[in-house]
Amino acid sequence: MSAPPELPELVVRALRLSLQRGYMQTSRTETGRLLAALAATRTGTIAECGTGCGVGAAWLRSGAPKDTRVITAELDPDLAHGVMDMFADDDIDVMHADWTSLAAHAPFSLVFLDAGSARAAAREQIVELVEPGGMVVLDDFVPCPGWPPLEHGRVDQLRQAWLSDERFTSVDVMVAEDTSVIVAVRS
Ligand SMILES: C[S@@+](CC[C@H](N)C(=O)[O-])C[C@H]1O[C@@H](n2cnc3c(N)ncnc32)[C@H](O)[C@@H]1O
């Protein structure tokens, strides 16, 4: 284990909601710890695309400075309203909306989304959300040691595009044996 086992109280609450709902897509704890550490460096506004049961938002809020805003959007109404209720007294803005509506609150100092959502989007839509010096964090990749990055025997074009984009300084971080996260910092 690379960190003390205690989890922030906000994260524990969000994990309980995930368990209650049988929601299996929550961010991994290893990813969450990275999110919290990155959020600790951020001012302005941090955005999450796809709230799920609020685990990623909880990690971001736990790490971010008090004055940094955390905003998250979820398409599924039950999930969005459940998380809104759960975070009613916390400083996290939860929207029931397609994440593309976050653009109205951009630019962001950090944008977090999962690889599945990123694959379904136009990459430029994500790039446009990020301020200079801001970062995009993409989770749920399968670790791949070689280049070009492969997934299921084929070139993983999404990962290749983020890691090759000259507007960003990027790294693929293997946060656990079976999962990796791309951090891309915009020039
Ligand atoms: C992998 S889960 C997100 C997990 C979450 N970020 C966490 O840290 O636990 C992806 C979520 O995105 C939501 N979603 C899918 N398409 C969306 C869209 N266009 N706008 C907002 N949310 C979306 C799904 O309903 C699902 O809850």
TrEMBL record:
Leader peptide range in chain numbering: none
Gene3D superfamilies: Vaccinia Virus protein VP39
GO biological process: methylation
Stored InterPro entries: SAM-dependent_MTases_sf
Keywords for this protein: Methyltransferase, Transferase
UniProt xrefs under SUPFAM superfamilies: S-adenosyl-L-methionine-dependent methyltransferases
One of the record's GO molecular function terms: methyltransferase activity
Name of the protein: Putative O-methyltransferase YrrM
